[in-house]
Prior knowledge:
The structure is a single chain. The chain has helices spanning 59-70, 105-113, 122-135, 155-158, 164-170, 179-193, 246-253, 258-267, 270-275, 281-286, 290-314, 324-329, 331-338, 350-354, 376-389; strands spanning 2-8, 12-19, 24-32, 40-45, 48-53, 84-91, 101-102, 141-145, 201-207, 211-217, 220-224, 319-323, 368-371. The chain is α/β, with parallel strands linked by helices. The protein folds into 2 domains: 2-145, ATPase, nucleotide binding domain (Nucleotidyltransferase, domain 5); 195-376, Nucleotidyltransferase, domain 5. The strands form 2 sheets. The chain has an 8-stranded mixed sheet, with helices on both faces. Helix 1 (59-70) crosses helix 3 and helix 11 (290-314) crosses helix 13. The longest helix has 25 residues, at 290-314. The two termini are 17 Å apart.
Amino acid sequence: MKIVIINCGSSSVKYHIYDIEKEKFLAEGNVEKVGEKGSFIKHKVGDKEITADVNAPHHEEAIKVALKYMLDPKTEVIKDEKEIIAVGHRVVHGGKLTGSVRIDQNVIQMLKNLFSLAPLHNPPNVAGIEAMRKLLPGIPHVAVFDTAFHQSLPEKAYLYALPYEYYQKYGIRRYGFHGTSHQYVAKEAAKFLKKPYNSLRMITCHLGAGSSICAIKGGKSVDTSMGFTPLEGLVMCTRTGDIDPAIIFFLVNHGMKLQDLYTILNEKSGLLGLSGVSKDMREVISCATHRCKVAFNVYCYRVRKYIGSYAAALGGFDVLVFTAGIGENRPEARAAICDGLEFLGVKIDEKKNKKNETDISANDSKVKVLVIPTNEAKLIALETLKVIKK
């Protein structure tokens, strides 16, 4: 019995095949440049990876291509379509839903109603859902939301200090994102430490192309850095993170168009905007220019500030977790972020950190500092299984 995991981005379709009985992934792939010239697929089974040019003018066609490779008899990953018992879909914005749900037309309409809250993410997510339901209509499809884990935030954490009627009328509040990643690494951290998940106060740092930080207490998210949209919070690869909103009015008054500003804030800021060189943390670290050094320092300083504020929100913490591309693979960033947090009980072992070991805590660190690879696809598979069992 297999579960297929689908993650549709604006120009890509990522997929995984999860074997329930073996409790492992059998294959994965990505159709890239959807809707663009030069579309191609990378399909990986074990150590073998195939790359091929494909025709993917839109998401439905990309899904067809992906399914063709998943059902390829040569790989013997799925010998018969009937082996697929469900499809789990990653959906970025689930509004006020507190958990994963089986997809029907009412759910699809609800997701479409949220397009204005997640215009870059929910439309391709829904396109993937509709395409996959056409191709595999006889099995359950489940939506797993990035926002669901953060629905446990208290009012004091999710409300903005705007007129209250804007929350009532438009749903303007902190929703938070990367919930599947934060939840997954938090549970894995508890397993690694052999401690009850609900007993730990954790701060999880998802540091990748998009970055966010989460305060977790009693197994629940109590605060998180991304807000109404994924733009708020930490400095990211191309996104600003927190800025004074009056800057937008200042730039508009100086002749900038709102749509251009939206693009700048989301796609031309962050590490890229500060360094002027790259959005890739590896290239920023290796670059010797003053702007690259500033970009690195601003990035790490913002994460460190959030850790301090979440330590206050939690009343102290037991575990600090780093995950995602930068969090898992850039010891320089982890060291810079933790430098100065000794007063909170955070100390890392330099040698362990450079080796990217799971536990990079110094022997006398009061807080456990861990590097846990995220695996959102696995959590989506497990959530999908939980829903269909109901």
